[in-house]
Amino acid sequence: MRIGIVVDAACDLPAEFLEQQRITVLPFTLRLDEEVLVDDRNADTTRRYLAENLGARGHSAETEPYSVEQIRDLFLGRLVLDYDCVFCLTITSTRSPTHARASQASFSILKDYRPIRRDANVPGPFLMRVIDTENLFAAEGVATVEAVRLRAAGENPGRIRERLELIARNTYGYMLPRDLYYLRARAQKKGDRSVGWLSAALGTALDIKPLLRGYRGTTGPVGKVRGFEHGAQTLFDHVGTRVRAGLLTPTLCVSYGGDLAELAALPGYAALKTVCSEHSVDVFESPMSMTGMINVGTGAITLGFAADEYDAAF
């Protein structure tokens, strides 16, 4: 069976991996003042976003995922012919309409694909499964990498779906933002009051950063650290502890809202990669998507891994 994998552009995985594994990306449309950009994980566009400091206008930007009609057209125009089953993994449904739109589109796709395959002499039925990763950015990548592994192992669609839903429910996503004022302004733009003015002002004045966690569709602070570099060290040390304790998949996904050379230079990162190597955990590093940087600011770190439930202590 030919199995395809679709993710949205907020899923932080290396562009080479997405290309090599033939993973289809659902783009986001970004509107920064009068300029319109398409976030489809194109490396050149991301480099321009960083080089021209377009993120300075990002807090007021509009981000729009693919519509129901665009998802339907993508599938009926190509994917129902290229594959016999497609898994569509989306950013958490609590933070984006992408999952709801893909689910709605699936009803039309599964109703209308038959004559398209018949006319193209493609035998057999077509299956589509929409999976809510229940997480954001780098953490979206964990279930995606697992989907690639299961496909390569020749697992059937039922087994793949069951496993991906398990991994999604047990994926931890962590984020360390760099600019609390930006994060607050962006939250206000989206009607999210989780970052108040006072906490942003105090955090900036005292250089206190929150450590945020995404888990089972909920995102919120789990700790505070003084200084971005100290925060990075604290976060990397924590993840290293979880790697030593054992993960549910041999995968750690990491993204950074800037040049990856800056990520490599942060305290504790080299040691984390060494721990991962010692425990046969693959590290997938990528620049954060433009969509991600618009929502949390440039210079932020996100990480994701799947593990048995535990209490985070920072």
Structure description:
- The structure is a single chain.
- The chain has a six-stranded mixed β-sheet, sandwiched between helices.
- The protein starts with a strand and ends in an 8-residue tail after the last strand.
- The protein is α/β, with parallel strands linked by helices and 314 residues long.
- It is globular.
- It contains twelve helices and 13 strands.
- The chain folds into two domains: 167 residues, Rossmann fold, CATH 3.40.50.10170; 136 residues, Hypothetical Protein Tm841, Chain: A,domain 3, CATH 3.30.1180.
What is the helix/strand order?
EHEEEHEHEHEHHEHHEEHEHHEHE
Number of helices: 12
What is the number of E strands? 13
CATH architecture assignment name of the largest domain: 3-Layer(aba) Sandwich
Separation of the first and last Cα atoms: 46 Å
In round numbers, the mean pLDDT is 92
- Over the alpha carbons, how many angstroms does the gyration radius reach? 19 Å
Structural class: alpha/beta
Principal-axis shape equals globular
What percentage of the residues does DSSP assign to strands (E)?
Answer: 15-25%
Spatial order of the strands forming the largest sheet: 10-9-8-13-11-12
> What kind of sheet is the major sheet?
6 strands, mixed
Domains (count): 2
Give the CATH level 1 class of the largest domain.
Alpha Beta
Percent helix: 40-55%
Q: In terms of per-residue confidence, which ranges show pLDDT below 50 for 5 or more consecutive residues?
A: none
CATH level 3 topology of the largest domain: Rossmann fold
